[in-house]
Write a structure and sequence with these properties.
Chain lengths: ~80, ~80
């Protein structure tokens, strides 16, 4: 069993709508000391033992389904075997 | 400037609908070696210097706005000063 983490962020310069909304709402709630917020979406994936290269497999999955390369950057890390 | 990261996961036993959908779609695309997927939502927050205890501030923010304690567990870590 291998565990891999795919971490997906917005590219620099791309608007992060969820973060902007949260920043506005935090400010309404009185949290005025926030300079910036970035959202990160991660997937923790467990592979069965017959997957030989879980990091490469996770990269393929990211590129085929999870990541939009126009707006996202992503990173794959091995979380444990 | 302090940077804090709030990481939000589903509690164990709570259904993670996004993960279930992704697992199904990955399997349709031929990625059949996935045993399980968990989604994690994180916020990277930069505080201005007048916030004295950024971790405590982030905890308050999580509890007031970002986390639903019925279904979520969360963790706050200091990412840098």
């Amino acid at each position: 069993m291998s565990r891999v983490r795919i971490e997906i962020k917005y590219l620099k310069g791309v608007e992060d709508p969820e973060a902007l909304t949260i920043k506005k709402n935090l400010s309404i709630l009185g949290f005025t000391g926030v300079s910036s917020i970035n959202t990160v979406r991660s997937y923790e994936i467990e592979f069965s033992d017959d997957v030989r290269d879980p990091v490469a497999e996770a990269r393929k999955m990211a590129e085929k389904l999870l990541v939009n390369p126009v707006i996202h950057d992503y990173e794959v890390t091995l979380a444990g075997e």
